[in-house]
Each structure stands twice: as structure tokens, then as C-alpha cells.
Design brief:
With about 325 residues, this protein is of the alpha/beta class. The model is unreliable at about 320-325 (pLDDT under 50). The chain has 2 domains: about 5-230, Rossmann fold (3-Layer(aba) Sandwich), CATH 3.40.50; about 235-300, Alpha-Beta Plaits (2-Layer Sandwich), CATH 3.30.70. α5 (about 145-155) runs parallel beside α6 (about 175-190) and α9 packs antiparallel against α10. Strands 6-7-8-3-9-10 form a 6-stranded mixed sheet, sandwiched between helices. A 4-stranded antiparallel sheet has the order 2-1-4-5, with helices on one face. It has helices at about 50-55, 80-85, 100-110, 115-130, 145-155, 175-190, 200-205, 225-230, 245-260, 280-290, 305-315, and strands at about 5-15, 25-35, 40, 65-70, 70-75, 85-90, 160-165, 195-200, 210-215, 220-225, 235-240, 260-265, 270-275, 295-300.
Length: about 325
């Protein structure tokens, strides 16, 4: 198997600032990314995701460990790495005083393309990212979603086979986020290898072949979404009863049907039990509740989410703030 990215024992330490101690942003990160796949680095702000990307993209030097990207050492062969990759950071790296077309033409010239080729490539990218009509407008008039698409187009100017996307949908509204997901899926269908960082659980679930969970500078778990969810357990039946006074009776009914312990939240009137019977068991629970005269407000068969995984592994949600990553 050929690997687009191989990293072993990456360490990055930011020195102490006035009134604070040093920050160990990475503490022995190991990664392998096969060619043609998507790896999602999932974790909260400050977990070490951006620091990892910056080292792999040669923007930071590691304080320990080693990494090879596209077969090149990120320290000894940094120029070769830069020629092989594309990078779209957390914030759109475009000049808002230039038009969309001018930004892409400038990127082409920075890639040392001849003028004619740079012009043609700018036109190709505007069309690919549905920005042709806006190509003649200054970027300051673009929406957030349009800026992100333009930034991603710029990262693809050199037609790299390996692309780093650092939180590509941060700050976008739901519609723009879905649009970016489709753009990313198109890149994957074309064979591009992606390393995607995100703090959005749904995004990792939707886009990544493999997910590495990052917390406090370490990879604490890795696998497919289904493999990670399996660590939390199987399906669960959740029932919300209408009358709080019937919670105890409902607990007995649900426990009898599910054959497992029942978790009760009196505040929300919610009962949760492990399930191995799928949708059929859910139907049987509803019937049993009805026969017992217990009215329900809601009932669902729920699989574990990546949020459940992250909470189980770390004790906190991905939205929680952690150590702030240095710029």
C-alpha cells in the first residue's frame, strides 16, 4: 500500500508566555494516510489539529518525530512537499481587493505557470466552483461560502493529488456547508487524497473514510465512523413519557421489552435502554406502552453518534474549548 502521509511521534512545543507555562501542542502524533482516501482529524479547538496540518504542510517545524508527505521529508525536502500539496486554511487566503479571477490568476503565476496557462486555469476553476458569474467582482463583495470556495479553488491551482483542508466549513451557514461538502466529495471522486480537520462530528461522519480523534495533542482513537461508534455500544431505544408520574411504570415496561437496564432522566421524562432487536423491538415497546396505558411524547431507535464517542473517550464534547493553539 502506498501512503500519501506518514507521520511518527510528532511533537510541537510552544514556549511559555508571560504568566503562562509552555504548551505541548502535539505530544507524539502518529498518522498514516493511504493514497486516494480521506482522513478526518476530529477534535475541539486547541486539540492539535491545526498544528498537525501546519507541520505536514511545512509551515511549522516539529520539535520531535518525523513525517513524510507525498514521499518527501517535511523538514529536509520542504520545497518538494510544497510542490506536491494544496492547502486551504481556516481562513480564506484571498485578497479581497482583487476580483475572484485576479486572485486565481495570481495563484497561477505564483505556481510559475505561463500567463496563458494561468489565465486558462483561472477560468477552469471559476467554472468548477460555480463562480464564473462572480469572477469579475471584487472578493470583498463575496459571501462567506463564496470566499471559502474561492480559497479552495486557489489551493487546487497546481492540481495537487494531496490536499489539506483545515476546518473548511467553519463559520459557514448550513446551506453553504452542504455546498462545500459536495465540492469535497467531487474532489474525492477524482482521486484526490484529503486530510480534513474538523470539529463538526457530522462532517467527519459524512466525508472521512477514517477518523482520528485528537485530544490534548494526542491521537486517542482511530477507525471508521462505524468502528468508533461500536466502542460506545449498540443501538438504544429512547422513550419520552407524557406523565412524569408514570416514569417508574414505564421503566419496568421498557426494561422488560429491552431486557436491559434502563437509564431514567426525570427532568426530561426520558428513558434509555440498550437494544438488540432493531425496529421490530421499537414497535413492540410502543405497543407495550400503549397496553399499559402509558402515553408517550416521543420514541426513537438511536445509534451512537460521534459525539457519544468523543464524550466517552475524553469526558467532554467536541464543542468544549481546550488549550488555544498558537498561530
Amino acid at each position: 500500500m502506498t501512503y500519501a502521509i506518514e507521520a511518527e511521534g510528532l511533537v510541537k512545543i510552544y514556549p511559555a508566555r508571560r504568566g503562562s507555562s509552555e504548551v505541548r501542542a502535539l505530544d507524539g502524533v502518529d498518522l498514516v494516510v493511504p493514497e486516494g482516501t480521506v482522513l478526518g482529524l476530529l477534535g475541539p479547538n486547541g486539540a492539535g489539529k491545526t498544528t498537525t496540518v501546519r507541520i505536514l504542510a511545512t509551515l511549522l517545524r516539529p520539535d520531535g518525530g518525523s513525517a513524510r508527505v507525498a514521499g518527501f521529508d517535511v523538514v529536509k525536502q520542504a520545497q518538494d512537499v510544497r510542490r506536491a500539496i494544496g492547502l486551504s486554511g481556516q481562513y480564506a487566503a484571498v485578497d479581497e481587493n482583487l476580483t475572484g479571477w485576479e486572485n486565481l490568476y495570481m495563484f497561477g503565476r505564483l505556481y510559475e505557470m505561463p500567463k496563458a496557462r494561468a489565465k486558462a486555469r483561472a477560468e477552469e476553476l471559476l467554472e468548477q466552483f460555480n463562480l464564473t458569474d462572480a469572477g469579475g467582482r471584487t472578493v470583498k463583495t463575496y459571501s462567506g461560502g463564496m470566499r471559502r470556495r474561492l480559497d479552495l479553488a486557489g489551493a487546487l491551482t497546481g492540481q495537487p493529488h494531496l490536499l489539506f483542508l483545515d476546518e473548511p466549513t467553519t463559520g459557514l451557514d448550513p446551506r453553504s456547508r452542504l455546498g462545500m461538502w459536495e465540492v469535497i466529495r467531487d474532489l474525492v471522486r477524482q482521486g484526490t487524497t484529503l486530510l480534513l480537520t474538523t470539529q463538526y462530528l457530522e462532517e467527519a461522519d459524512e466525508l472521512a473514510d477514517t477518523i482520528a480523534v485528537v485530544d490534548t495533542g494526542k491521537i486517542i482513537a482511530k477507525g471508521t465512523a462505524d468502528e468508533l461508534k461500536a466502542q460506545v455500544g449498540g443501538e438504544r431505544i429512547e422513550v419520552v413519557v407524557k406523565d412524569r408520574a408514570l416514569l417508574d411504570q414505564a421503566r419496568q415496561v421498557l426494561g422488560g421489552q429491552a431486557g436491559s437496564e434502563v437509564e431514567v432522566d426525570e427532568h426530561t421524562r426520558r428513558l434509555i435502554a440498550s437494544s438488540s432487536g432493531g425496529a421490530q423491538q421499537l414497535v413492540e415497546v410502543v405497543q407495550a406502552m400503549g397496553e399499559a396505558g402509558i402515553a408517550i411524547d416521543d420514541v426513537a431507535l438511536r445509534r451512537p453518534t460521534l459525539d457519544d464517542v468523543f464524550l466517552t473517550l475524553t469526558g467532554h464534547h467536541t464543542a468544549d474549548e481546550n488549550v488555544e493553539e498558537s498561530a
